[in-house]
Specification:
7-stranded parallel beta sheet, about 35% helix, 4-phosphoerythronate dehydrogenase activity, two-stranded parallel sheet, EC 1.1.1.290, about 280 residues, SDR family oxidoreductase, oxidoreductase, globular, NAD(P)-bd_dom_sf, alpha/beta, Rossmann fold
């Protein structure tokens, strides 16, 4: 089988995991970062560029890529940070692709924060995106930039990613800063986030324009932090109010309808492994 080429724009932890999942496939992975790491990663070649620089992107894309995966992150947790981290790279990609070979597929890693609903609703791909905060609004604008350009686009709106190196919730329980609210929460393990992207690129025929990526469990935050406290052997967190834009439930049936099988179907499986590995 002839090899295919994938460019991961903004290649961080998720991009490295994606390359690992594709290591035994025919897909050659290039990761674009402004400052690539000095240590190489198996199955991943880095190229240094600013994702918001359309001219640099055009030069890189001139060699032709079958797939482009965008894994944007904000430069800061501010409106301007989301503008720079999401909108600017999407604008640059649209400009660069106007004068570059067309890819077979463009995948944008987005977020369920575009849904501002917070009354315990079940959200699926038919639900209207009603962002209540600047981050969700900027991410939705970035999605629209790519969609309006007529690209062969699939958007993946991810629930909260957890996994190795993402220890904020664990640390808050250990340090007695966590609060046990009754708001519903949603998450996806980093391995399943990357695994599903790889699965879409290599195993699925026609793909939908939008998938919600979650383990589908939707426990309350109280259930999660009280389980974590028990597993860590620390005091149970006290009750608390709902957090921000929490309290919605993400329906993952379209994702599962592709045939993808989750490695971590429950937060207890994923966090138990993290706790076992932690010092």
């Amino acid at each position: 089988m002839d090899s295919e080429k994938l460019l991961v724009i903004g290649c961080g932890d998720l991009g490295r995991r994606l390359a690992h999942h594709l290591n035994d496939s025919s897909v050659q992975v290039t990761g674009l970062r402004r400052h690539p790491p000095h240590t190489p990663h198996e199955g991943l070649t880095y190229v240094s560029a600013d994702a918001a620089d359309a001219s640099a992107l055009q030069q890189i894309l001139a060699s032709g890529y079958d797939y482009i995966v965008m894994t944007p992150t904000p430069t800061a947790r501010t409106d301007e940070g989301y503008e720079r981290g999401y909108l600017a790279p999407c604008r640059a990609l649209v400009q660069a692709l106007a004068a570059s070979p067309a890819p077979k597929k463009v995948v944008m890693v987005s977020s369920t924060s575009v849904y501002g609903q917070n009354h315990g609703e079940w959200i699926d791909e038919q639900a209207e995106a009603l962002p209540s905060k600047f981050n969700g609004r900027r991410i939705l604008e970035a999605e629209a930039l790519l969609a309006d350009a007529g690209l062969p686009l699939t958007v993946l709106r991810l629930a909260g990613i957890y996994g190795p190196g993402r220890d904020r919730l664990l640390d808050s329980v250990r340090s007695a800063r966590a609060r046990a609210s009754q708001a519903y929460t949603n998450r996806i393990h980093a391995e399943d986030a990357a695994g599903f992207i790889a699965y879409l690129l290599t195993e699925v025929g026609p793909v939908a324009p939008l998938y919600l990526v979650s383990d589908g469990e939707s426990p309350t935050k109280a259930q999660v932090v009280r389980w974590l406290a028990g597993a860590l052997g620390v005091a149970e967190p006290p009750p608390g109010d709902a957090d921000g834009d929490l309290n919605k439930r993400i329906d993952n049936r379209r994702m599962l309808s592709t045939g993808y099988r989750l490695r971590y179907e429950s937060f207890t499986e994923g966090f138990a492994e993290l706790i076992q590995r932690s010092p």
